[in-house]
């Protein structure tokens, strides 16, 4: 589904990613771990098409199509979703309105009419129940005054609404207590299926107790230095990252 | 897929440059340019006005001649040459008895382009329309329904003839001819405008609406609006403007006077979209407006405005809270882009006891524009327990625009309670990227963020107006980021 080949990317002439190779197939969960500054968040931003990063070499291919020339919103329309480490606030714009806009923009790009209001309501109801989200929450301004847990749950709610092919969860566990972590992880597990894939970017192993990866990759200094199964995460937990350098 | 979007965007950018920038050929009668007493007399004569009105105009003209243009506003522009303007222009052959069906098809076509076709309005909305094209009202609808309630809603020219006692009593009572340079000019040469009277205890059953429009090249437009809500009555009035593209600057100096007698309520909403000039700052309308309301005992005045157009805006819808317990509100969104300049705000003059006022101002600046909020809250010595809450928020887009806030407070009463809050924020790249990542293109993202920022004010607009206002915000900020 997603193939990353020899990906190099830099910001302000400083190279951060130095040749990443990764293949993610439908139905798989990949974890990307690594110390601070390894390039984890850069990788997610580059896949999503953040223009602050320059891809100097390599390819990102989704379902056989090179994403290089696509704007971030076009990548989103193709099914790329990024759960942000720090979701931004948009005052005065409700979660519902934001999602309605996002879904209809995506439909417009596919040549479809706006989603009828009744269908939209049904979808919102279904997904908020699935993720145990209070409907009142959805009328609040996007991320404004949300707790850390609420922000991350909101990200997963958006993922549920947009039904992406590939979801990248960037440090979704940061700032969450154990209950919030469990809720978020359960949400992701419910959304996972044969046809989509998830990349979990995390610093710690604990999220992987709940979202169990098929593969664990260790990112260090812009390169994947080790790949293994879920047991690798436990090993990292025990030994840290230093032994891999 | 990407091609499709790019082409779409390109097309949109081309067509949205000034969506309403078209010009309709109308067979108009225009006065020679220039201004003197003869022209003032001719305007009055043309409109078949009684002597007292002619005298009132002449008096105003004499006052105006000795006045100088104000310079205190935070705007710079080339002053209009008042002798190079034609002061009267009317679509020809207006028959006051004609119905909408008789209206010039070309005009109707123009309304259609604006999305305000009368047919549609008539069928779908319960809005009575008094449409001003250039200077003379050409069609009035829903008159009968209003008649039943004793509501008078007509052009000011008609009111001068049909209801001279009301006009004579109230015109210039809130904005005297001596008030300021542009108000004096307007008093001398006002072409037409709307008049509305709501009788005692009557609740106007529909939103009253006027669409203004500048059409003839080089024609200054001077509307005069007079709205009187008698004791215990209620009216909601909508005013909206769009103007076609023009290269030379066009002057627009309106005067709006509102009078709310005891226990009356007036809600006055404006969407202003005069031509702002092109992206290099060429052309555009000068909008120098005097809007003021007088509130008697227990009366309430609510101004809501969405200002997206004009090259230069100079406008302070104000409330004189004369009676005890009177309430004044001002909700404003002012958008400036490219080289637009806006100096807008309000004055809340508290004279009565327990008077209350609220000011919510949202300024959005983009491009190289300058956006100023200027507001005065004045508490008179008799205004015990007066309250004011002011909130001024500015949103900046890019690094070349400016947002300014000039709040003035004058209090002569120690029991007054005044609160002022101000914020300035910027649309961040991170907000845009977040939206993009969810599949929302940048232009839509900006519209979304701006709408969110403006929501407190947009919520105050009547439904059908809010939709138009949102659209205007979007068009006004096209291409202002990235």
TrEMBL record, chain A:
<dbReference type="InterPro" id="IPR010230">
    <property type="entry name" value="FeS-cluster_ATPase_SufC"/>
</dbReference>
<keyword id="KW-0067">ATP-binding</keyword>
<dbReference type="GO" id="GO:0016887">
    <property type="term" value="F:ATP hydrolysis activity"/>
</dbReference>
<keyword id="KW-0547">Nucleotide-binding</keyword>
<dbReference type="InterPro" id="IPR003593">
    <property type="entry name" value="AAA+_ATPase"/>
</dbReference>
<dbReference type="Pfam" id="PF00005">
    <property type="entry name" value="ABC_tran"/>
</dbReference>
<dbReference type="InterPro" id="IPR027417">
    <property type="entry name" value="P-loop_NTPase"/>
</dbReference>
<dbReference type="GO" id="GO:0005524">
    <property type="term" value="F:ATP binding"/>
</dbReference>
<feature type="domain" description="ABC transporter">
    <location>
        <begin position="2"/>
        <end position="244"/>
    </location>
</feature>
<comment type="similarity">
    <text>Belongs to the ABC transporter superfamily. Ycf16 family.</text>
</comment>
<dbReference type="InterPro" id="IPR003439">
    <property type="entry name" value="ABC_transporter-like_ATP-bd"/>
</dbReference>
<protein>
    <submittedName>
        <fullName>Fe-S cluster assembly ATPase SufC</fullName>
    </submittedName>
</protein>
Automatic annotation (TrEMBL), chain B:
<protein>
    <submittedName>
        <fullName>Fe-S cluster assembly protein SufB</fullName>
    </submittedName>
</protein>
<dbReference type="InterPro" id="IPR000825">
    <property type="entry name" value="SUF_FeS_clus_asmbl_SufBD_core"/>
</dbReference>
<dbReference type="Pfam" id="PF19295">
    <property type="entry name" value="SufBD_N"/>
</dbReference>
<dbReference type="GO" id="GO:0016226">
    <property type="term" value="P:iron-sulfur cluster assembly"/>
</dbReference>
<comment type="similarity">
    <text>Belongs to the iron-sulfur cluster assembly SufBD family.</text>
</comment>
<dbReference type="InterPro" id="IPR010231">
    <property type="entry name" value="SUF_FeS_clus_asmbl_SufB"/>
</dbReference>
<feature type="domain" description="SUF system FeS cluster assembly SufBD core">
    <location>
        <begin position="212"/>
        <end position="453"/>
    </location>
</feature>
<dbReference type="InterPro" id="IPR045595">
    <property type="entry name" value="SufBD_N"/>
</dbReference>
<feature type="domain" description="SUF system FeS cluster assembly SufBD N-terminal">
    <location>
        <begin position="124"/>
        <end position="204"/>
    </location>
</feature>
<dbReference type="Pfam" id="PF01458">
    <property type="entry name" value="SUFBD_core"/>
</dbReference>
<dbReference type="InterPro" id="IPR055346">
    <property type="entry name" value="Fe-S_cluster_assembly_SufBD"/>
</dbReference>
<dbReference type="InterPro" id="IPR037284">
    <property type="entry name" value="SUF_FeS_clus_asmbl_SufBD_sf"/>
</dbReference>
């Amino acid at each position: 589904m997603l193939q990353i080949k020899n990906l190099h990317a830099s910001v302000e002439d400083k190279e951060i990613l130095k040749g990443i190779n990764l293949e993610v197939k439908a139905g798989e969960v990949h974890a990307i771990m690594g110390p601070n500054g390894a390039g984890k968040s850069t990788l997610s931003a580059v896949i999503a098409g953040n223009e602050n990063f320059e891809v100097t070499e390599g390819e990102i291919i989704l379902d056989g199509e090179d994403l290089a020339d696509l704007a971030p919103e076009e990548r989103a329309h193709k099914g790329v979703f990024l759960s942000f480490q720090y979701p931004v606030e948009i005052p005065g714009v409700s979660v519902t309105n934001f999602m309605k806009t996002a879904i209809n923009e995506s439909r417009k790009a596919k040549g479809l009419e706006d989603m009828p209001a009744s269908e939209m309501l049904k979808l919102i109801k279904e997904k908020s129940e699935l993720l145990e989200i209070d409907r009142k929450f959805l009328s609040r301004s996007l991320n404004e005054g949300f707790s850390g847990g609420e922000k991350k749950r909101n990200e997963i709610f958006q993922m549920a609404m947009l039904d992406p092919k590939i979801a990248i969860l960037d440090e979704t566990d940061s700032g969450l207590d154990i209950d919030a972590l469990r809720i978020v992880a359960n949400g992701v597990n419910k959304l996972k299926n044969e046809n989509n894939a998830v990349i979990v970017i995390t610093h710690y192993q604990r999220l992987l107790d709940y979202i169990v990866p098929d593969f664990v990759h260790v990112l260090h200094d812009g390169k994947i230095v080790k790949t293994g199964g879920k047991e690798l995460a436990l090993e990292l937990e025990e030994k840290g990252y230093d032994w891999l350098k | 897929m990407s091609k499709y979007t790019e082409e779409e965007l390109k097309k949109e950018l081309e067509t949205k440059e000034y969506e309403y920038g078209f010009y309709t050929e109308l067979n108009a009668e225009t006065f020679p340019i220039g201004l003197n007493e003869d022209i003032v007399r001719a305007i009055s004569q043309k409109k078949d006005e009684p002597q007292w009105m002619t005298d009132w105009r002449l008096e105003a003209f004499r006052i105006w001649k000795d006045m100088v243009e104000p310079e205190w506003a935070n705007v710079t522009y080339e002053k209009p040459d008042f002798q190079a303007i034609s002061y009267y222009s009317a679509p020809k052959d207006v028959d006051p008895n004609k119905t909408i069906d008789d209206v010039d098809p070309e005009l109707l076509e123009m309304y259609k382009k604006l999305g305000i076709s009368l047919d549609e309005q008539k069928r779908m909305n319960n809005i009575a329309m008094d449409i001003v094209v250039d200077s003379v009202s050409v069609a009035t609808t829903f008159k009968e329904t209003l008649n039943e309630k004793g509501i008078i809603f007509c052009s000011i020219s008609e009111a001068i003839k049909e209801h001279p006692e009301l006009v004579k009593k109230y015109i210039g009572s809130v904005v005297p001819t001596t008030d300021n340079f542009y108000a004096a000019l307007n008093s001398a040469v006002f072409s037409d405008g709307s008049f509305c009277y709501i009788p005692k205890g009557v609740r106007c059953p529909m939103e009253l609406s006027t669409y203004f429009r500048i059409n003839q090249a080089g024609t200054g437009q001077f509307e005069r609006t007079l709205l009187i809500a008698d004791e215990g009555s209620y009216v909601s009035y909508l005013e909206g403007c769009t103007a076609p593209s023009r290269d030379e600057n066009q002057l627009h100096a309106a005067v709006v006077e509102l009078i709310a007698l005891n226990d009356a309520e007036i809600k006055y909403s404006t969407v202003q979209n005069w031509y702002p000039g092109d992206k290099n700052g060429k052309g555009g309308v000068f909008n120098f407006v005097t809007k003021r309301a007088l509130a008697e005992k227990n009366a309430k005045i609510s101004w809501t405005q969405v200002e997206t157009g004009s090259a230069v805006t100079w406008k302070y819808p104000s409330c004189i809270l004369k009676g005890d317990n009177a309430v004044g509100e001002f909700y404003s969104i002012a958008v400036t882009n490219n080289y637009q300049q806006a100096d807008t705000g309000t004055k809340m003059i508290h004279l009565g006891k327990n008077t209350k006022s609220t000011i919510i101002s949202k300024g959005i600046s983009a491009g190289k524009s300058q956006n100023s909020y200027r507001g005065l809250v004045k508490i008179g010595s008799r205004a015990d327990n007066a309250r004011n809450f002011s909130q001024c928020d500015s949103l900046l887009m890019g690094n070349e625009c400016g947002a300014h806030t000039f709040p003035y407070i004058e209090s002569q009463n120690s029991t007054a309670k005044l609160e002022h809050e101000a914020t300035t924020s910027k649309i961040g790249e991170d907000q845009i990227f977040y939206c993009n990542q969810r599949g929302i293109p940048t232009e839509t993202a900006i519209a979304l963020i701006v709408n969110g920022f403006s929501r407190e004010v947009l919520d105050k607009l009547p439904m059908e107006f809010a939709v138009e206002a949102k659209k205007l915000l979007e068009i006004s900020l096209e291409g202002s980021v990235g």
